[in-house]
Amino acid sequence: MVMRYNEPLYRPPAEANSLIFQAAYECPNNTCTFCAMYKEKKYRERDPIDTKTVETYQANIKFKLGIENASELSRYAIQWVQSSSPNT
User: Fold this and answer.
1) Which domain holds residue 26?
2) Does residue 22 sit in the same domain as residue 54?
């Protein structure tokens, strides 16, 4: 599944490698005097059909891996990364 991001995408450096699902675009407040991130853009929510698509993919992945919840998915992902790393 390819995630389509609405650019520019602002996030903290600690989240640089995280998968982000944009449930909404831009900033709902957009009136902060100290922030110029989204001054040129209007806030809007993502199409609910996109959200349902992600939920469907998530359900299919969990079914194929025999996983019940997000904790198990995280544990599986960590084990997979550790087993795939060449020098661990």
Assistant:
1) 1-46
2) no
